Amino acid sequence: xxxxxxxxxxxxxxxxxxxxxxxxxxxxxxxxMGYYSPAFFDSVQSEYFAVRTGATVYDVSPLIKYSIRGKDxxxxxxxxxxxxxxxxxxxQAAYTAWCDDDGKMIEEGTIFxxxxxxxxxxxxxxxxxxxxxxxxxxDVAIEEVSExxxxxALQGPTSRxxxxxxxxxxxEKLAHFGIMETTVxxxxxxxxxxxxxxxxxxxLWVKPEDALWLWERLFSLGDPYKIAPIGSQxxxxxxxxxxFILVDADYIGAMHAIRPTQRESPFEAGIGWAVGLKKDAYxxxxxxxxxxxxxxxxxxILMGLEVEGRKPAHGAFLYADQAAKQxxxxxxxxxxxxxLKKSIAFARVxxxxxxxxxxxxxxxxxxxxxxxxxxxxxxxxxxxxFFDPPRKKEVG
Amino acid sequence: xxxKAYDVAIIGAGHNGLVAATYLARAGxxxxxxxxxxxxxxxxxxxxxxxxxxxxxxxxxxxxLHPRIVGDLGLKLATQGIGTAILMPEGKSVExxxxxxxxxxxxxxxxKADAEAWPRVMARLTKLASALGSFLTRxxxxxxxxxxxxxxxxxxxxxxxxxxxxxxxxxxxxxxxLTMNVADLANDFFESDAxxxxxxxxxxxxxxxxxxxxxxxxxxxxxLSSYGKHGMGGLFLPKGGMGAVAAALEQAARKAGxxxxxxxxxxxxxxxxxxxxxxxxxxxxxxxxPIVASSADPQTTLLKLVEPGNLDTEFMKRIRHLRMNGCVAxxxxxxxxxxxxxxxxxxxxxxxxxxxxxxRAFDCAKYGRVSDKPALExxxxxxxxxxxAPAGKHVASILYQYAPYxxxxxxxxxxxxxxxxxxxxxxDVLAPGLRTRVVGSEVLTPHDLEAQFxxxxxxxxxxxxxxxxxFFLRPAGQYQQYRMPIPGLWLCGAGAHPGGNVxxxxxxxxxxxxxxxxKQRRAAA
Lengths: 396, 525
Hints:
A: Elongation Factor Tu (Ef-tu), domain 3, 6-stranded antiparallel β-barrel, 19 strands, B: alpha/beta
């Protein structure tokens, strides 16, 4: 049967696969970095509301994790990424971009500073080659440690209560983007207060052999707190509400762009705030980004968009006028937000239109009873962070 | 030391560093040149290698020193024009020199057709090379639209015009042969192994390529460009060795007010707020200058002297991947007398009896070995300049092609021994009794050239001269105008356009670009 070899399932299973499979109603598995990953378990709607009202777990084990340590690790990280790493203290995490020579974004992700010269970098795409190339001359050891750690994102308003129940001492004091290491039931666990939902939430990292223990404990304690597993579809809804961009959805990584003009700078991708032009060290792409800033050559900026009406404006054309005479850009991600009760989107608009409050128009095509209908909807440019509850950052 | 002590700090007192320094000082800049060695010259030096015996350290024949630079700097050099003898088996030779009739007659011994073709073909190749040569002293244009000033655009237009003015036939011929291999070119025009062998060697000297490798015609044209009006018009031995050229340049520099410090190795380039602001010497002393121009090769400058974390990742990779595989070893022999066969050999002798001989020599290099049977270029500088050896004694200065830097299984010490032994074995056939006359010797493999002269990879052009590493791609695309990515840092050595040979063109071009940028800055202020 060698001729059907390629039809055999070849995806790997994460350490959380068995308990996830038990809860899987339909066939919601999709492929993520070579692993089975849930797109949904039962209904996307219920999973969405579980994130916003209870607590949810999402298996983030397939994320690619690099350990970067050594004498020059801090200097190297500061050179590699756009954020000023000198301002990130040990046991703190930071969201950042990293760019190529031309200041075009290769990817964005989270850096965990575990010690003065000890970092973990989480990425959605493979970066080892780029890390090695960039590290020329630095005394650092770079290693992919993806399979040495597995993780669950525990997100939602009741997530802290569950961790308190679990017996994680000091969880109340863990600040937004803080990291702590603890031992529960004699098992090592690293917790960081970050996530992709824009709500109160944590990421829990354990050794693969402790995965089932973690899952069992969370679900046995979490029942009164409405704990539920979610898949990537519900996560995609909440991340748009939270304003988080996603590689391949809202921008193309510089190494994956087929045409060089498709590459985007962090300014263009709407995360200019993460570019530390003022930091007292060079970083890859800094000269190009300084030029872009000084000359104002950003082609567009990814902004938030509130769209009138109920129709989601996903991948829709944007116009300066209702008559659709002057086309100015496209939306990347968009949805009807159930909790905000409005249609929201990310919009790539020229800098001249990027001021919050600017009125623009979008053209939405949607199917209705075997027909395709066209709608011109009035929109307002906004900041992307549509959903930002105080509990996201509150301590205690 | 603090404050603005100097306007320009130049790293390396090689010929390009000295040329750049002189031009800059004459334009009113306060220039300091910092040289790691105890004397100036870089790779253009005359060194004593055995008691009383002296030889040019690296390059030994002068042909490319640009006439404009000689004129501008008022250099006075005593040189002697030399011809080439193609050494053939059984002690015969073909003599090529400045006397056209004698050359033709000599070639006719091996081939009447080649004798007839030689003056015509070489004149045409030199004409084509000279058309290219007009760009030696120009700044390469940037491929980025709008990045070129009027001067650069004009130079490019003039260059294009010059190529067009070659005429349709010659222009087509140039485009036909430019990327070709020299073996095919030689077979196009000549029939004798002697002439084809000579072209094979001349086209591959200093590049890690064999006569059948593409690009070798370009290297030949590059060499021939100095045989016309953009060079010295032929081959010359400088009196006193190559060190005399460096001495003349040093004199011109000092006269222009350049401060030269020898024995001052630079540890790293001082970079403050992402701008080059000077250099730090090995001893810790800071020498500050708003312009730092390095005549060291691009890898040494950008990978060693610039500390990590200052240059972009892909640019660094490009520099790391420059082809710098030196493949020529230098052999110096101290002779207590000349064998009979060599008593009147004042010119250049070439051992490259046919294309296949050179190709097989390259085969060894290709697989990381020292050539079993090397192609050799030999000069006896002491015949013209007796001061290089004790009375009645002589010096042989030899290029050994190929002894690659990248060796597969041979330790460098063994490679050095192989080079000497194989040189003597080859010479003993050409000039019987030579071996017994050797009283001292020195071998400089590419490893030694790297260690002693700071040439990365032992590559004496600071990067192989091939089309993909020339013109607006030298040292890297977008960085061909001597200005490096770090503001204030410039390249002024052979690693930048137009590359190697003792020509001084890179230094002169860099100086012109530096002055241009200063003028722009003044205009903006």
